């Protein structure tokens, strides 16, 4: 499980003063990028050396409670499943112990031309222990 903290800025909010719904997707994207980095996966090198990239295939999102300007949020990322070409994650946005947003995200591995590809063995070796 990986944790990523962030602050809500004025630019993240809508006219009602709450976080605009699409910005939760930005928050969880930032957290996923940091999660991959902590795993030791350099996505720039992965593309340059192997011609592979990760892309979001599917997001199932539940908006439970609003976040507001200046809130400190934590995004928790948990790996649920790994297959030949897919990674399934659960990501939650929390304010303290209060759950605000939950998403199940499916990532796929693609060639830089957009064709499906298998996740490399070295990356699978970093992901599989997370499932225990």
TrEMBL record:
CDD domains reported for this sequence: 4HBT (cd00586)
Keywords: Hydrolase
Domain of life: Bacteria
Thioesterase domain sequence ranges: 17-99
Transmembrane residue ranges: none
Entries under Pfam families matching the protein: 4HBT
Any one GO MF annotation of this record: fatty acyl-CoA hydrolase activity
InterPro entries xrefs: 4-hydroxybenzoyl-CoA_TE, HotDog_dom_sf, Thioestr_dom, Tol-Pal_acyl-CoA_thioesterase, YbgC/YbaW
Assigned protein family: Belongs to the 4-hydroxybenzoyl-CoA thioesterase family.
Name under which the protein is recorded: Tol-pal system-associated acyl-CoA thioesterase
Organism: Cypionkella aquatica
Source lineage: Bacteria, Pseudomonadati, Pseudomonadota, Alphaproteobacteria, Rhodobacterales
């Amino acid at each position: 499980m990986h944790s990523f903290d962030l602050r809500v800025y004025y630019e993240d909010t809508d006219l009602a003063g709450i976080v605009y719904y699409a910005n939760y997707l930005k928050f969880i994207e930032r957290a996923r990028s940091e999660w991959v980095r902590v795993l030791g996966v350099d996505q720039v090198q992965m593309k340059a050396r192997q011609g592979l990239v990760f892309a979001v295939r599917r997001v199932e999102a539940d908006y439970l409670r609003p976040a507001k300007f200046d809130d400190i949020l934590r995004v928790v990322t948990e790996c649920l499943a790994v297959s030949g070409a897919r990674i399934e994650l659960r990501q939650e946005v929390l304010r303290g112990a209060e759950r605000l947003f939950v998403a199940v995200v499916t990532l796929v591995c693609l060639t830089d031309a957009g064709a499906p590809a298998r996740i490399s063995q070295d990356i699978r070796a970093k992901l599989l222990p997370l499932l225990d």
